Amino acid sequence: MIDPQEVTERVQEIRSEIASLTSSSVAIIAVTKTFGHDALNAAFAAQCDAVGENYAQEVLAKVAEAPVDLPIHFIGAIQSNKVRQLAPYIAVWQGVDRVSVIAELAKRAPGAHILLQVNTTAEGTKSGVEPSEVEELLEAAGQAGISVRGLMTIGPTGGTNAQSQKAFSSLRSLADSFGLIECSMGMSDDYRIAVECGSTMVRIGSRLFGARTTVR
Questions:
Q1: Cα separation values, 52 from 45, 132, 160, 179, Å
Q2: In angstroms, rounded to a whole number, what is the distance separating the alpha carbons of residues 133 and 140?
Q3: What is the pLDDT of residues 126-166, one digit of tens each?
Q4: Is residue 155 assigned to a domain?
Q5: What's the number of domains the chain is made of?
Q6: Residue 106 domain flag
Q7: Range of the domain at 135
Q8: Confidence band (pLDDT; 50, 70, 90) for 14?
Q9: 86 to each of 45, 92, 105, 174, 205, how far by Cα in Å?
Q10: Nearest to 4 by CA among 37, 34, 33, 28
């Protein structure tokens, strides 16, 4: 079982660290994928800003089990055929990187709030569009009536601090060039660097809840 008091203390520590790095507001998205409803409840008690989930069937199972008291962000690759089922429950879709998903969101979740995922590390194992392709997705979203709140990225796997800084700074610059406010970047291992580079949302899982034992 997850101890809500421990989670609250960890959230407070993270907020204190963030405050020492920036005067700007940074949302904490508690990544609850593979954890049970006790993680969702602990995130709510700790006053996280939202929870993050990656798997459609897991979201549906959790909302069927009990209400989720925080906004749910769907993070990562989105299957178009799952959008209809998820639409009533998702506040922000992080990880949109295809025109086909934008079209499905326009049909099933009109006016949806999204973040476009950008591959800022040039790693073939990571999802996301190339920086040069962002404008095309922005135009498609605008035509479809979808609200692009900003961009998101995943830092380099096993990267150095300098490599992380390069990836995050490039996303912030790209967002600024299009007048976008939100930058979702930084996870448990690299959120401090991301905040220094202008992140407005950090996605924290293991730092709050411990190592995941469930593998998907």
A1: 16, 27, 26, 25
A2: 11
A3: 889 999 999 999 999 999 999 999 999 999 998 899 999 99
A4: yes
A5: 1
A6: yes
A7: 4-209
A8: very high
A9: 24, 11, 10, 29, 21
A10: 37
On whether residue 214 sits in a domain, the answer given is no
Instruction: Look at residue 204 and tell me whether its pLDDT is greater than 50.
Output: yes
Quick one: tokens of 118? 């950008």
- What residues form DSSP beta bridges with 51? 30, 72
As a whole number, the mean pLDDT across the chain is 95
As beta bridge partners, residue 184 has: 152, 201
CATH of residue 165's domain is 3.20.20.10
Q: Which pairing describes strands 50-53 and 90-96: parallel, antiparallel, or unpaired?
A: unpaired
Which three-class secondary structure state does DSSP give residue 38? Answer: helix
* Contacts (Cβ under 8 Å, ≥6 apart) of 42: 2, 3, 4, 7, 8, 208, 209
What's the Cα-to-Cα distance from 92 to each of 5, 60, 72, 147, 150, rounded to whole Å?
27, 16, 7, 10, 11
If one counts every other C-beta atom within 10 angstroms of the C-beta of residue 204, the result is: 22
Residue located via tokens 């690299």: 190
Specify whether the CB–CB gap between 92 and 113 falls below 8 A: yes
